[in-house]
Amino acid sequence: MNNKALAAVALLALILSACSKSSQPQKTAATPPATPVAPNAASPNATAPVAAPVATAAPARGVKTEMRNVLFHLSDRAAAHLEVLSGELWPTGKNEMPVFDDKNSFEVHVTSGKVSISPQALASILNNHVFARSDAPLKDLSITIENQSMRIKGKLHSKGDIPFETTGTLSVNPDGRIRVKTEKVKALHVPMKGVMGVFGIELADVVNTSQIAGLDTAKNDLLMDLGTLLPPPHIRGKVTAVKLENDAIVTYFGDGGASLPPPTETGSYMKFEGNPVRFGKMTMESADLVVLDMDASGTLDWSQDHYRDQLVAGYSKITPAFGLRAYVKDFGKLPRTPDPASAPPATPAQPPTPAAPGKS
Q1: Is 226:214 a contact under the CB 8 Å cutoff?
Q2: Do 111 and 86 form a contact (C-beta atoms < 8 A)?
Q3: In a domain, 188, yes or no
Q4: Domain identity same for 126 and 207
Q5: How much is the CA Rg of the chain, to the nearest whole Å?
Q6: How many structural domains comprise the chain?
Q7: What proportion of the chain, given as a percentage, has pLDDT over 90?
Q8: Is the pLDDT of residue 45 over 60?
Q9: Which of 50-54, 96-100, 105-109 has the lowest mean pLDDT?
Q10: Are residues 152 and 190 in the same domain?
Q11: What is the 3-state secondary structure (H, E, C) of 219-243?
Q12: Residue 353 lies in a domain
């Protein structure tokens, strides 16, 4: 590289450094807590006020869950493959039970499982969920897997939409987050990692993730907390390994399902047992619910946003113990309602052509 090229690269690095440092939010001094005001001294005969009883919320109760071969939609266009998963559904916030009609009412606590997601599906979630805000630092992301490395391309939106590219490997952080260890960085198609090292610039200086829940930077690495990063219902659990297999990002929880007993149902299914769960107008005080694919030989394609349509398109059975077995139609096989926004505009009716003079 000649001197002019070196100077250009150095100038670009300095610009990125200056822009990022000036764009960081200013920290404000912490406000000391207010000192409580002591009550006025009461006369000896005064009666002390009686404290109002504090209402205690009912303890949350988990619903035992087992899933096998489920394509679980995180959005209409992106899904994660739950090859095997064992854990519990736990109500969130003030909810007393998981409510299927509100995917924010519960989260999945995984004890053991194997979950995979394609790079295309992950990119869709990042673009349309994680970085959907207009002030997000990254835009137009695409992800590919090449030679056991993950390549991410996109634009540094906070730096004037400068195109960038980074390649890295995946590992699990001690705290359970997934670490994308950066090996190569390019900006404006120019290799930058070496130049960044010379000028003491790190990825954290270039990409501000302070406003992105579930995403953080550590020097030149990205840290992803899947339990927070992905859309609800959130999946939480101890991540023990992450691998790139069959053009997919595969996450292992616990022992990856190796110690689970054989399937209790035929085909693909989701099983819920014990404690209350609500769906539609029905509440099961002690859940005994199994959702199965109508096509026993296929993968259960499930969308929490459209589950009622899947139930309506299928059928159900009641067991002798009053359990419910719901056979649903795959989400991808449901009839699609045309999007009005994508329909071509109607052609306005043409007025009748007036008759020529002297003709009737």
Answers
A1: yes
A2: yes
A3: yes
A4: yes
A5: 28
A6: 2
A7: 49
A8: no
A9: 50-54
A10: yes
A11: CCEEEECHHHHCCCCCEEECEEEEE
A12: no
